[in-house]
Design brief:
single chain, about 270 residues, alpha/beta, TIM Barrel, two-stranded antiparallel sheet, 9 strands, about 40% helix, about 15% strand, globular
């Protein structure tokens, strides 16, 4: 069994931002020391218990502190970035990691994040923006010459090179044609996980029960079938809470009366209800 970790990352709302950030960094260094294979870093803007608007900053620092751990943003919310900017940012991370980072993407699931960027997520606008942005980013990574893309939400242009070769589009990913992509899904029967299945991307799921997860896998299989692919469970990443203690009773007590229990009582259960 391959073991990894997903850091949302969760912190008590009163924790100082810098303290939380360096706690995350220490945690990633520890995961590397005990043989974890990979770690994914979440991204949120308006969730006080999960503050991390720039996961790639933590990833970049962790690459210097770890030797074997594959540290990846999990992920970039595509509706909140212009595709040209994000295509370059991802390509640059791929170079400085020398291919050690997967690239997680998503469409965003937090209503207050949607509001922050003036996006109508309730109508599915965020998912449409994600698909369009992804198409433009891949054009940047794979194009051999200039192009113009005009979509419903985004415009993407690779301009002609300067005749004297002083200015030109020149930053493409280290990994060819581009890094392995992963897509996070939150809602039951997630449309973004359909996109993962359709394109052969890594599906990222949080485990809130078997029924919830089965809907995620059905979405992956549906997308794969539409594209004539066979969905592979081997690449499916599932995040769930695990607490290790000397006894079951001790583990139960520390979960219920510690930070995990507090997070569920005061965040996850209200959100899911």
């Amino acid at each position: 069994m391959k073991v990894g970790a997903f850091l949302m990352p969760n912190h008590p709302p009163e924790r100082d931002f810098a303290e939380g950030h360096y706690h995350n960094l220490d945690t990633l260094e520890y995961y590397d020391s005990i043989g974890f294979e990979e770690a994914w870093i979440g991204c949120h803007y308006t969730v006080p218990r999960e503050p991390n608007p720039a996961p790639d900053l933590l990833v970049a620092q962790a690459l210097l502190k770890t030797k074997n751990l594959r540290v990846s943003p999990g992920g970039y919310m595509l509706p909140y970035h212009h595709p040209a900017e994000l295509a370059h940012r991802i390509a640059w991370l791929d170079h400085i990691s020398q291919g050690r980072s997967y690239i997680g993407i998503g469409s965003g699931s937090i209503p207050t994040d949607w509001g922050l960027f003036n996006i109508d997520g309730f109508s599915g606008e965020n998912r449409e923006m994600t698909e369009e942005a992804l198409e433009i980013m891949i054009r940047f990574w794979q194009s051999d010459g200039e192009f113009d893309y005009e979509g419903k939400y985004w415009k993407g242009t690779r301009p002609p090179d300067d005749p004297e070769d002083l200015y030109k589009f020149h930053i493409k990913p280290f990994t060819k044609p581009y890094p392995q992509l992963a897509i996070a899904g939150f809602s039951p029967n997630s449309p973004t996980l359909e996109l993962a299945g359709k394109n052969g991307y890594i599906p990222l799921s949080l485990s809130f029960g078997n029924t919830y997860l089965s809907g995620h896998w059905e979405a992956v299989e549906k997308g794969a079938a539409e594209a004539g692919r066979e969905a592979s469970r081997e690449i499916w990443r599932i995040g769930r809470d695990v607490y290790v203690a000397d006894t079951d009773a001790e583990a139960r007590d520390k979960v219920l009366n510690g930070q995990i229990g507090d997070q569920y009582r005061n965040f996850w259960l209200p959100v899911l209800n």
